[in-house]
Amino acid sequence: MTTTENRPGSDVIDWSAAPPPTDETGWLQRAREVRRILERDAAARDRAGATPYDEVALLKESGLVTLLGPVEHGGGGQEWPTAYRVIREVAAGDGSIGQLLGYHLLWFWAARLVGTPDQIEAVEADATRNRWFFGGAVNPRDADLTIREDGDDIVYSGHKSFSTGSKVSDVTVLEGVLDGSGDPGTHVFAIVPSEQEGITFHDDWDNIGQRLTESGSVTIDDVRVPWTSAAGFVDRAFQPRIYNTLNVPTIQLVFVSFYLGIARGALETGAEYTRGTTRPWLHGGQQRAVDEPYQLDLYGDYQSKLWAVEALADAVAQEALEIHRDAWNVTAQQRGAHEVRVAAVKARATEVALEITSGIFEGLGARATAAQLGFDRFWRNVRTHTLHDPVAYKRREVGAHLLRDELPEPTWYS
User: Fold this and answer.
1) How confident is the prediction along the chain (414 residues), in pLDDT tens digits per residue?
2) Which of 23, 110, 319, 332 is 20 to 30 Å from 326 at the Cα level?
3) Is the backbone of residue 405 left (phi > 0), alpha (psi -120 to 50) or beta?
4) Listed residues 192, 216, 238: the one ending a domain
5) Phi first, then psi: what are they for 357, rounded to 5°?
6) How many other CB atoms sit within 10 Å of the CB of residue 61?
7) Which residues have a Cβ under 8 Å from the Cβ of 360 and sit 6 or more positions away?
8) CB 147 within 8 A of CB 175
9) 391 and 248 in a common domain
């Protein structure tokens, strides 16, 4: 959808007429309103694959982009347990938009993970007041961007295969390695405006799922940043903390959130279709599909499994809350033990989401394979993103901790 008249949320809800929510209950209700708008035409928008400018505008108008922002600057003042549940709600309506929101919230928060106190305050104030939407060009499987010093500036150059958010972002997070800093090198994060001559988004995201995430490749050509904006650096020297390494467990829980949201969307959309459209088997002796014993078993099994993983995800998010609240004093033991729990829920969320989104067709019937209905999008979305990093390595982290009392070493994926 590209016109104002057809934009999701157009002439539906005027959020500006009401004060923003002040607690988790209110923000979850706001997220459900966004979900209902998105899910009305999610299948059609998935087929069209258009750049989701209007969908991101909807996230801004609803206030969800500033969910984690300081209240004094107009933000929601919420914490990660609420954010993860909000991402799940949005992803239930549209998996792509749930991923965009999740990545945005991670990059919005990244100043707290890496930055100095002054940088954190400045970034969050500007991002909240201006409702910036964040993208990121930080794919660790590619060669790092190179950074050269030029007076009081650092200058980024290079290419990344993936840059989620790309054209719909207001700002992009860059990460690279400083020339001459050896191996593994000095890594530097910075936030830059997305619309500038030095950044070229290549519009080459053409995957089977998560089609509206704008995750194509990007070329960075002499993008200049003041040294004072290098995240976590003081007088050109990085200020390390254990908390600097919490970006990976946090983004992994973002992944869990939109996997579970997509699974929830498949289950509830499927149940609605089964109640209203699916016919009973002609030799089964039932008058309604909802009375078929195999339907009751299927939906009961999937609901039970989803509830279980959602509960685990909520518990792990709550465990992380104390780590986030005591960011300056996190220990390696705390960080490692938390990552093991994150690995466990990531593994279970992956398996359950794939099972539900592929198996739900058993409850729908042959007519539900019509392309117009787009029931396949749920599986395509989960299958695409769950290949981000091998889930076997997540299970291995859990096993190594249980059998050998080992904690995962912080990496770009653990």
Assistant:
1) 333 334 564 556 889 888 889 999 999 999 999 999 999 999 999 999 999 999 999 999 999 999 999 999 999 999 999 999 999 999 999 999 999 999 999 999 999 999 999 999 999 999 999 999 999 999 888 899 999 999 999 999 999 999 999 999 999 999 999 999 988 889 999 999 999 999 999 999 999 999 999 999 999 999 999 999 999 999 999 999 999 999 999 999 999 999 999 999 999 999 999 999 999 999 999 999 999 999 999 999 999 999 999 999 999 999 999 999 999 999 999 999 999 999 999 999 999 999 999 999 999 999 999 999 999 999 999 999 999 999 999 999 999 999 999 999 999 999
2) 23
3) left
4) 238
5) -70, -25
6) 19
7) 266, 267, 270, 302, 375, 378
8) no
9) yes
**Whole-angstrom distance, CA of residue 88 vs CA of residue 408:** 27
- Kindly state whether residues 164 and 110 are assigned to the same domain: no
- Indicate if 119 and 141 belong to the same structural domain: no
Residues 117 and 225 in one domain: no
d(CA 137, CA 315): 30
CA 292/CA 280 separation, integer angstroms: 7
Query: 4 in a domain, yes or no?
Result: no
Tell me how many domains the chain contains: 3
- Read off the CATH number of the domain in which 223 is found: 2.40.110.10
Q: Which two tokens stand for residue 20?
A: 């923003």
Q: DSSP E strands: which ranges in 59-162?
A: 134-137, 145-150, 153-160
324/330 Cα distance (integer angstroms):
8
Structural domain harbouring 154: 137-238
How far apart CA 274 and CA 363 sit, in angstroms, is: 7
Backbone angles phi, psi at 282, to 5 degrees: -65, -20
Alpha-carbon span 190 to 174, nearest angstrom: 5
Identify whether residues 263 and 117 lie together within a single domain: no
